[in-house]
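Honest question from a wet-lab person: if I give you the sequences of every part of a complex, can you actually get the arrangement of the whole thing, not just the pieces? Trying it with mine:
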Amino acid sequence: MPVSERQIEPPRLGEPYLLTPGPLTTAYSVKEAMLRDWGSWDDDFRAMTLDMRMRLLSLLGKGAEDFDCVPMQGSGSFAVEAMLGTFIPPDGKALVLANGAYGLRSAQTMAYLGRDHILLDKGDYLPPRGEEVAAILHDDPAITHVVAIHCETSSGILNPIDEIARVTQAAGRKLLIDSMSAFGAIDLKVADICYEAMVSSANKCIEGVPGFGFVIARKSALEDARGNCHSLSLDVHAQWAHMNKTGQWRFTPPTHAVAAFLEALHQHEAEGGVAGRGGRYTRNRDVLVEGMRDLGFETLLKDRWLSPIIVTFFCPSDDRFLFDRFYQLMKARGFIIYPGKLTVVDSFRIGCIGQMDENVMRRVVSAAKETLEEMGVASATPPAKALEERAKLAA
Ligand SMILES: *Cc1c(COP(=O)(O)O)cnc(C)c1O
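Yes, you can. This is the full assembly:
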């Protein structure tokens, strides 16, 4: 069946759609895959782990044979901490690029690890650009690694990872990417973008359930990383070596979440892989943004920077607009939205990822329209301050 005709099934228990960047709305077959129990040491589960790792590597395209995939128990942040602690040696130094909460979290993780780092903090949403990264690397030869966020989920900005990768490689440094909310929907082909390691998790664009993350790294980097890690349980090198020797995870794996993820990977492939998945999310975003703009809402970001993952909208300036009420009334209509994370102006976010298509997004827009009417909000126009804020963003 052509991708465009694939039916997205509504949640069978009538639960609201999660318009959030993970956990997100999963397919029924993904939830169903969790009905069986698996022995973590058993051949069947070991084969599932290997199949999952191979399927993830196949998303990298040409050159994938130089990389390996290491799953890691815990939420996405555990996997980020594992990546930073394993690949940046104790005598290394990182340049952390931040334009939102997840970049700042990476810097905070480096501080916890007691590892040397400097932070380029661009504020709520301005993208770190290639030239400024190049200048910092030029001025500070001690920097060994650059840490970048692919899609900064706190604003929904798609950072210019190609630019950042190019200047990092040109300066002879190594790039570590938090592609948590992008991998599986936005290309990260190793032939196009040079990186040492990247990290993502089960409950984002592959549309599995929460429970683990995974690090994809150059085999040479994995080999060199022995002994770097500060933590026994988060040591990616140790997990990798053990898994390649025994087929098993070192400590209890989230067996049900892995089974669900494998089903999610089959669905991802059936949808046309990264291109198919990214295409559906892009249509979701386009329908959402167009419909919301018709209601008078404005996006924080200009079109160029909008990711197909999640979109930030300014709250309307009308006094009758109260976010908590808007949230509750949207939930009553079947849609769970997400509060904003901007420090300067009020905002909220709507995710485009998970088991939903453009038809669902049309219903989201209708629900927003009805909700505004119910609240007595005549216009969704944001305050002038919000638009001034946006004007700071170069085209
Ligand atoms: C979701 C996400 C994470 C990890 O968050 P957890 O709550 O630990 O799963 C990290 N970085 C980005 C960019 C994310 O979107």
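Two things worth pointing out. Residues 21-22, 75-77, 80, 102, 149, 153, 178, 180-181, 201 surround pyridoxal-5'-phosphate (CB under 6 Å). The first helix runs from residue 28 to 32.
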